[in-house]
Amino acid sequence: MSEFLKSYLTVIVINFIALAWLIYSVIKNKKKTGESLKAALKVFIKTLPMIIIIIIFIGFLLGFLPPDMISRVVGEQAGILGVFVTAVLGSVLFIPALISFPLAASLLDGGASVMSVAAFITTLTMVGVVTLPLEIKEMGKKMTILRNVFSFVFAIIIAIIMGVIL
Amino acid sequence: MKPGEANKSNEKIKQRKSLIRDYIIMGAVIVLAASALFIFPDKSNAVLNVSKNYFIELIMILPAIMVIIGLFSVWVPKETVVKYLGKTSGIKGIIIAIALGMLPTGPLYIAFPMAAALLKKGAKISNIVIFISAWACIKLPQELVEIQFLGIQFTLLRLGLTVIFIIIMGIMIEKTIGFTDRKKIQVDENY
Q1: Is the pLDDT of residue B181 over 90?
Q2: A47, A163, B54, B161: most buried, per Cβ within 10 A?
Q3: Considering CB atoms only, which of A13, A25, A147 is closest to B75?
Q4: Poorest-confidence range of A66-75, B36-45, B61-70, B128-137?
């Protein structure tokens, strides 16, 4: 796959779906289309402030903690305690997956354990401390806390199983 | 004014208040961030660069996502969501939740409004948790990159385990929520 497709596949797919559905909607029923767009604008206005805040947060997080610094910290961790520390790091940080995989590969090459790397990648994606405010707003406090706590615990279990098998 | 209408307008006022609060918080964060960059000028390039990249990604994805949520809320009848993701959807519901989450659709924070829309239309809590989790860690284009960098064995093992555990997690969270506020969920269903 070309580099271009890889980085823009998401953008292309999602915009294609939206556009196709929108065209279908206009053809089928203009009034319903208007209602849909109104609903879309409402959701947009409601979610925008949280998303802007999250983006600013991520900027500071990665601006002050560049990837090479993160990889040094994760690489130094060992044993069960190390798995726990990398899991916490993965929960707090917010790194796009396309960057996190090469980062993880370089960690493995550098001698980090499979367990730590698996814990790091899994919490990185599943547990989101940065996105907590938005998740609470949309899904409610109880579900958000349960989901993140369970995800954290299961990520560590997944990491340990992977460390034992690989 | 009937009591129901009074309730509704109260709800509206509450929503407007929380909206205004959100925008005030956003303004405060922007001002704080700007002053922080002023204090640490050597970091400002890195911070602005990262934020800029995310902002561009957002602009390319967010409008489409919002249009899809809007179309979904108007066009997809409640019965359809209940049928495919609701109480009696069973294994089929789990598979659909995972498949929906796997589509290449952008970062996790966009999944939350989507999940809220599905929940409102009658999807089961376990399926919503599975949907969010699958969205978070099983993305189609991403997995190709994971295979490329971490190898097929690592990737498949991690994905297999993840699928098993997110299903267990979905069921456990649903049981926990159902156990602690059965009453509230019943009220929501009536609504």
Answers
A1: no
A2: A47
A3: A25
A4: A66-75
Residues of chain B in contact with residue A100, where contact means CB-CB under 8 angstroms, are: none
Residue B22 lies in a domain: no
Q: How many CB atoms lie within 10 A of CB A113?
A: 21
Q: Cα torsion for B120, B124, B129, B132, to the nearest 10°?
A: -50
In A109-128, the residues whose Cβ lies within 8 Å of chain B are 114, 118, 121-122, 125-126, 128
Which of A40-54, A60-74, A88-102, A139-153 tops mean pLDDT? A139-153
**Mean pLDDT of all residues in A82-100:** 84
- Domain spans in chain A, listed from the N-terminal domain onward: 1-64, 67-166
User: Do residue A6 and residue B142 have CB atoms under 8 angstroms apart?
Assistant: no
Domain that holds residue B150: 61-190
For range B133-155, the mean pLDDT: 87
**Is B85 contained in some domain?**
yes
Q: Which residues of A touch B153 (CB under 8 A)?
A: 166
**Placement of tokens 């307008």 in the chain:** B9
pTM of the model: 0.85
**Hey, are the CB atoms on A147 and B169 less than 8 Å from each other?**
yes
Kindly indicate the confidence band of residue B21, based on its pLDDT and cuts at 50, 70 and 90.
very high
Q: Which of B74, B108, B145 sits opposite A39 (nearest CB)?
A: B74
SS (H, E, C) B97-117: HHHHHHCCCCCHHHHHHHHHH
Q: Which of A38, A66, A114 sits opposite B46 (nearest CB)?
A: A66
Report phi then psi at B181, rounded to 5: -135, 65
Exposure string for B158-177, b = 16+ CB within 10 A, e = fewer: beebbbebbbebbbbbbeeb
* Dihedral sign, Cα of residue B55, residue B60, residue B61, residue B63: positive
Quick one: pLDDT band at residue B89, thresholds 50, 70, 90? very high
Domain count, chain B: 1
Query: For residue B28, is it within any domain?
Result: no
